[in-house]
Design goal:
With 325 residues, this protein is an alpha/beta fold. It has helices at 41-48, 55-58, 124-128, 133-144, 161-172, 186-192, 224-228, 244-255, 272-289, 304-313; strands spanning 2-6, 15-19, 29-39, 71-79, 91-95, 106-110, 114-117, 152-156, 176-181, 196-199, 212-217, 231-239, 261-264, 295-300, 319-323.
């Protein structure tokens, strides 16, 4: 089968399309013919091996799992022994987390892993990226922040995969949503449920006059020091991107029991059963409220490196899909 392989840390040029053996469905596993997969900001960080402490998990000198990609959608074509919840022909989607391997024509995944039947309300392309933005933002806003109706939420990077999902989830739970993005994305963000839009290019975060209960920085481009100036007295700052500054702020605000605190979480590090339950819950929102998964661009499997070049440019919006034609 064809697969996008990364055998050394570095730039997009490290991604090579190679012919490798089709994986087998071992005991408790299903073999999926992949129709679509994801290319995410997290994937690009994994490709570069940065931040460096991540290599303790991903592989010290080179990636432990060379086939890139974590999100997928496709069809079950083979069953290992003792598989009870899936049958041949099932349309499924999910996430491989730290096992990667989805930017390929076939994928073997444990039945007990993060895999669910694909609802008809999602295309394969939408389902392939559903575990990036919607699942991660659900974890931050619902599981961690425990968002409530009437709260004021500021979302930085609102036009990204995490941000566009966060706008919709926050709106679904009755919060007042302010989206930070470029002006060209305002129309789409208001369509997704943003009540207010602010151009980050012309308005500095610390100059915002509003005070927010939740500041969710989906791209990790702000700091807790900036956030404090726009947080309410007990406002909370959340970021899926960990750097030294955020780590220090997390420790200090918790140690001194500050009312305003900084928080980081790595959704992909959660255990599969926890992620699967969370995915079922966010999927209920999608089915009930038609949670949209906007797609920016689609690439054939042979052009995964091109998708990563777009990720590296910093101009990516919403979601990127890798399609197996």
């Amino acid at each position: 089968m064809k697969a996008a392989c990364v055998e050394a840390y570095g730039g997009p040029e490290q991604i090579q399309i190679k012919n490798i053996a089709i994986p087998k469905a071992h005991r408790g596993e299903v073999l999926v013919k992949v129709h679509a997969s994801s290319a995410t900001t997290a994937d690009s960080m994994i490709r570069t091996g940065k931040p460096y402490f991540g290599r303790l998990i991903l592989g010290l000198l080179k990636p432990k799992y060379p086939v890139s990609g974590t999100g997928f959608s496709g069809e079950v074509i083979a069953l290992g022994e003792s598989v009870h919840n899936f049958k041949l022909g099932d349309q499924v989607f999910g996430e491989t987390t730290l096992n990667f391997g989805t930017n390929a024509e076939y994928l073997s995944i444990k039945e007990a892993g993060v895999i669910l039947p694909k609802p008809e309300s999602l295309s394969h392309e939408e389902a392939a990226v559903f575990c990036d933005g919607p699942l991660t933002s659900y974890n931050f806003l619902v599981s961690l922040a425990r968002i409530k109706a009437g709260q004021k939420v500021l979302i930085n990077g609102a036009a990204g995969s995490l941000g566009s999902a966060a706008v919709q989830i926050a709106n679904y739970y009755g919060a007042e949503v302010t989206a930070l993005a470029s002006t060209e994305n305002f129309s789409k963000l208001k369509e997704l449920g943003a009540h207010h839009c602010v151009d980050y290019k012309t308005t500095a975060i610390e100059n915002l006059s509003e005070r927010f209960d939740i500041f969710y920085d989906t791209v990790g481009k702000s700091s807790f020091k900036q956030a404090k100036k726009v947080l309410s007295k007990e406002g909370q700052y959340y970021s899926p991107v960990l750097n030294l500054s955020t780590l220090v702020d997390m420790i200090c605000t918790k140690l001194f029991k500050a009312k305003q605190r900084a928080h980081f979480a790595a959704t992909g590090m959660l255990k599969d059963p926890e992620l699967k339950v969370m995915l079922e819950k966010v999927l209920q929102i999608q089915i009930a409220a038609k949670l949209k998964v906007p797609i920016f661009r689609q690439y054939p499997l042979e052009k995964v490196a091109e998708a990563h070049r777009l990720l590296a440019s910093g101009t990516k919006k919403f979601n990127l899909v890798i399609r197996n034609l």
